[in-house]
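Tutorial, part two.
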Amino acid sequence: MRVPRSTYRLQITPEFTLSDAAELVPYLRRLGVDWVYVSPILQAEAGSQHGYDVTDHSRIDRERGGEEGFDALVAAAREAGMGLLVDIVPNHVGVATPAQNPWWWDLLTYGRESRYAEAFDVDWEAGDGRILIPVLGDASTADLTVDGDELVYFDNRYPIAPGTGGDDAQAVHDRQHYRLVDWRLESTDLNYRRFFAVSTLAAIRVEVPEVFDESHAEIRRWFDEGLVDGLRVDHPDGLADPGGYITDLAELTGGRYVLIEKILEGDEPLHPDWPSAGTTGYDALAILDRVFVDPAGETPLTALADELRGRHQSYADLIHDTKRAVADGILQSEVRRLARDLVRAGGIDATDDAAVLHDGIAELLTCFPVYRSYLPHGTEAWRETLEAAKQHRPDLGEVLDDLAAAFQRTGTAPSIRFQQTSGMVMAKGVEDCAFYRYTRLTSLTEVGAEPQEFSVSPARFHELQEQRASVLPDSMTTLSTHDTKRSEDTRARISAVAEVPDEWADALSRLRAAAPVGDGSFENLLWQAVVGAWPLSRERAHAYAEKAAREAGDSTAWLDVDEEFEARMHAAVDAAFDDPAVRDVVESVVDRLRVAGLSNSLGEKLVQLTAPGVPDVYQGTEFWDRSLVDPDNRRPVDYRARVTTLDRLDGGWTPEVDDEGAAKLLVVSRALRLRRDRPELFTGYRGLTAVGEAADHALAFDRGGAITVATRLPIGLAARGGWGDTELELPEGDLVDVLTGRRFPGGRIRLADLLSTYPVALVTVPED
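Running the prediction step on this input gives:
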């Protein structure tokens, strides 16, 4: 199996096509990238900016460059000696515009008789033989019209089954295999499985061989013709049998490189029997962030967060509340489906109180500690789940026992569906809600992370890297993705708050007094975001504030907007730009954190690029990138500026740390080139320990000839007067720092000398 030495993720859109990606390949090659890594490229909903709403598996998306653009990218990659990694979406398809999806259109036309009826996971009985489509503004169908062989509701068009037409639109509607209903019923009555709570993304059943074959025919062609070298699998936890799917994929690809988007909770291991190279790197991101966070900040920042919320709430209690709200709210339809499956399977008495069943199922989903189990593996998670559920709801003890036993019967419909649903509740309750409420240090609330874990010591970091090198050497590592809540450089600056918690508390108090919003916990999140991403445009700040506040759901929400609160929130954002007093506080905090943030950024990036695993660089992040949550992190990238800067660097320029991202581009390019061109230097892992008064500020390791040295906790280091006599033992003989080109003899070296130009160094034996 060919394994990439590094990857570079590109978001392929109608504005940045596969042809554009092909033209960028020479730059990526010069940067040091080994494989090009692209977002989904199969035909998606027209105008889609992400491509995860695939509507036709049989062809490359025409708006994204089509077959011609794909061929151009493949040819460019091959000419450059680079591999190609493609993101695929097996769990669901886009159905927002039915006519664009031939499978869905056929299903709506013919219902259970459709050749694609088995492809979709529809509970026909729950809809009296019809698919419920939540699209109406209310319960009325008065606005329906007939246009030829289509039923029309404003901009929405649906097929009319043969022989069921007529002039009376409502009568026609009553004869279809689908029923258009009030959009609000999607949370309670929806009878087809979807992606999370997105009703315009209908799940498909790739566990059915015919469905797998047809939905993967084009993907199979890529490998049969040698066009693609590896795959990134989106959301495998939504599938009925993730392990079986990955095994099928391994056969289809001929055992090529396959990564899965898997969120590992805590110490949860990746399933050892799956033929996968590893994950997409969120587990690595969490550790990389935390080794640059000052543990001394935990107590004061926790106290501040409690004060702002008005009470102490543990993270465990918080996520229980948010997950339960999801199970009772936007995913209630999934809970009801589980209850129906249990009754049909005979696992539960049909005469049992439905409300009690729903209550018990929701509590088990709430208490499930990981995304899902993979029965018969994962019974330990069930033991933890049942114990926690009984602690929260002792009144449901007997019901919980019966439900847990039924859901653990491997291979049954209820068991399979519970495994598919638990991850939905986790994602919506934790990442898309609790992460916006748990605001003591927001750089820690990132996808795949445990926010209650505040920091990681260098010693623990080394242990984890040794483990990764042994167990998952080919797994991806990342710092920024299209899904991260904040980009790596935004988080790096926010992490520096942990070094000055009292100063942050004082600044936040002044900001709240000058621009009050009325929700202290949210204000903590908002001002950390503004400081972390500054300077940013007014429009970006407003968009982030609105999304974050509604996701948090404390003072406003997507479906229950508090206009008065949001007016105060938007006024606070405007104050950052218009009120000199507020702007002065923001900029003074930014000035205080700026140098530390740059140091953290360079350190974390170099560590990620040189540590065990396959490092990915998300588009544009070779420069400083202070993005916030999507769509902010999917903005166009100015590659011309990056090409020009790389030219200057290759011409011998040594930039200052804050020269418009040039220092970061230097770190990225030199680390990627070394990793690609001298792979023999990256064959092991050994943690190194500095000696001296500032030893705890150094993070260093030897990969087998490539030695990484990074500065951590830079504000504290400056406060103690710098490195002083702190030294690091390096190998004997001539050495070179590939970032500066400076040569020096091996042995003991003062960190004050080694890190005199940059807060990082990448040391090795020179080639000549």
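The two ends are 32 Å apart (CA to CA). In part three we will examine how such features are distributed along the chain.
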